[in-house]
Amino acid sequence: MNWLKALFDATSLDRLLAIVNEYLLAFPEEHWSWIPREARPRLVASAAELHEWHRRLSEAMAEATSPNIRLQDLCVFFVRASARALELEERGARSCNDGDQDGDSRQAG
Questions:
Q1: Structurally, how many domains does the chain consist of?
Q2: DSSP code per residue over 4-42
Q3: Distance (Å, rounded) from C-alpha 5 to C-alpha 1?
Q4: How would residue 2 be classed by pLDDT, with cut points 50, 70 and 90?
Q5: Mean pLDDT for the stretch of residues 50-64
Q6: How confident is the model at residue 55 (pLDDT cuts 50, 70, 90)?
Q7: Mean pLDDT of 28-43
Q8: Domain range spanning residue 36?
Q9: Rg for the chain (alpha carbons), in Å?
Q10: Which of 8, 74, 79, 96 has a CA-to-CA distance to 59 between 20 and 30 Å?
Q11: pTM for this prediction
Q12: 34 close to 40: Cβ distance less than 8 angstroms
């Protein structure tokens, strides 16, 4: 599966979180043994948790003396997932605001 494309194609925050959790469950335990324990994400239930893991992984990369490709891939995945969540949240907020403006203009007219 192309995980980065799946993130890009997500059209809702719920779908995005489901993709992130599918990604986390897709790898066997030996894959995770390459990731420092404190940088091993748990399943995420909200955009806030997703953004928190993005922050933690970025810090783990910055502190790593010799980061391995698995940690790098995980960090890239969470950077992209966090960015997509922000896009979806912004789109949702814009849609709500557009609806409010429509309601205001109908009331005024």
A1: 1
A2: HHHHHH--SHHHHHHHHHHHHHTS-HHHHTTS-GGG-PP
A3: 9
A4: very high
A5: 94
A6: very high
A7: 93
A8: 3-108
A9: 17
A10: 8
A11: 0.83
A12: no
